[in-house]
Structures are given as C-alpha cells and as structure tokens.
C-alpha cells in the first residue's frame, strides 16, 4: 500500500516557547519512506532526537511568534493483515525488559483499575483470542464522538462514558490489553479514510513475539497504517507538545491511497 501524506501546521504563540514536534512517518522494517520532506519556518536551528523505542524521530523547535510547518511524504506499507485469534500469548515472566513498561499502568491507561472487569467478562481467553475479543468489545461498545473528551480524559473515563475519539479508543484498548497481561502501546499514525481527516491513534499489541497494529475505531486496517511514533500513552505520542501556550490558526492532514481512492 502506497500512501501520500500532506500536513500543514500553523500556530501562533503568545510568547516564545520550545516545541517538540512528532509528525514524520517512521522508517521501519514494515514501512518504507519513498519520499519525505519536512519544512519548518524558524529563525532558530531545529534539532532532531530519536523517538520512543527508537521508532521515528522528534524535532525540537524554538519558536518566537508562531509555528509554521509543512510535511509531505510517500510511504510504502509492506505489512500483512494478521488474524489476532491465532496468535499465542507470551507469559509475563517471559517478557524482556523493554516490554515491561507496556504491561504496566500509565498516566492515561489505568489498566490496574480494569483487571476485575477483564477477568469476569473474558473468562477462559488468553493471547490472540483475548486480544481479538477486547478489540471487538471496544469497537462494539464505544460511540465515536468528537468533542466528547479532552486532553486529560483517561481510559477509565472512556470506559465510563463509552464515547470518544481515536485517542480514547486507543487508550481503552491498551488499558484492557494490559489488564489481560498483554503488552500494549499507543501508536501515532497516518491512515486513509480517517473521518474527520486528522492525525490518528491506534493500538499495538505484543503477541507471539511481535507487535500487531489494531485500530479499534475500525477506520483503518494494519496494512494501510503508517506509524509515526509509539509510547505508553498520549503523553509519548502527541504530534506537538508546546512548553508554553499556542493558538491554532490552521491544521490540515490529508492521507490518500495512491491508487486514487481517498
């Protein structure tokens, strides 16, 4: 799958601030960057730093009056769609050190508060069968609703409201998976067909020795998702973190399949 990505960001600042930007598609074994260009209008040098788990990169920007950035890319996704049901689990005691953070609760994914629900609702399931059941539960019981959550909404809040946007779907699925002893992380991504068009968030679950992308909103399949970065929750994968205050002027994200479909 070849994807065309076009992003414009235009923000005004009340006073100078440092900005951490994460909008570049990552180069990974299952997705290849055929072309990419990031242009940032700034009077200061831009510094690139590696992303979480070495996936993707962030950019430090010093902005005096505002941020204007343009990103264009063509990404070739070479990732098969795998049925979760057939994948085996890895016992917690067999996980390597780099996976342990994705098994534990985090700021927006309070998995410890959902363990009782998972044990009672999904009796007898484990591994891929459990992962598939959790993804199906989130997709079935959640309603996609813009404006129904905020930047401080957690997985537990979403579990109660049963509504939200992709960020909330992802937090809930990740928290449920961790409660089921399946390592899970959040992924910032680009995907065609996202409605409304925007940066997208999906989950990634560790099963049978590898990471597997799952979009609980149902908007995208694993073979048409371009990863940007990964992390424990939205804290790690935010497309822009401003150490100050910023006001939105314009933000546009367009992702197209290069076969011509939107």
UniProtKB/TrEMBL annotation:
Sections of the chain in a coiled coil: none
Signal peptide from the UniProt entry: none
SMART domains, per database record: TGc (SM00460)
Residue intervals of the Transglutaminase-like domain: 158-218
Organism: Sphingomonas yabuuchiae
Domain of life: Bacteria
Protein name: Transglutaminase family protein
């Amino acid at each position: 799958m070849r994807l065309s990505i076009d992003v414009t960001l235009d923000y005004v600042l009340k006073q100078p601030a440092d900005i951490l930007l994460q909008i570049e598609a990552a180069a990974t074994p299952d997705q290849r960057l055929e072309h990419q260009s990031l242009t940032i209008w700034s009077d200061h040098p831009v510094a690139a730093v590696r992303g979480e788990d070495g996936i993707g990169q962030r950019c430090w920007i010093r902005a005096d009056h505002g941020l204007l950035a343009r990103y264009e890319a063509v990404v070739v996704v070479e990732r098969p769609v795998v049925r979760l049901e057939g994948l085996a689990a890895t016992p917690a005691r067999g996980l390597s050190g780099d996976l342990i953070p994705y098994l534990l609760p985090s700021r927006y994914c309070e998995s410890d508060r959902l363990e009782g629900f998972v044990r009672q609702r999904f009796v007898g399931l484990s591994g891929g069968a459990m992962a598939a059941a959790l993804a199906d539960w989130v997709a079935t019981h959640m309603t996609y609703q813009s404006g129904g959550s905020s930047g401080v909404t957690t997985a537990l809040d979403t579990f109660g409201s049963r509504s939200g946007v992709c960020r909330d779907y992802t937090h809930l699925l990740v928290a449920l998976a961790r409660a089921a002893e399946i390592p899970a992380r959040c992924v910032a991504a680009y995907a065609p067909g996202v409605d409304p068009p925007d940066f997208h968030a999906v989950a990634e679950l560790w099963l049978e020795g590898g990471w597997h992308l799952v979009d609980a909103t149902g908007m995208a399949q694993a073979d048409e998702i371009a990863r940007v970065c990964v992390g424990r929750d939205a804290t790690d994968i935010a497309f822009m973190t401003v150490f100050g205050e910023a006001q939105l002027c314009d933000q546009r994200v367009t992702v197209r399949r290069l076969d011509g479909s939107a």
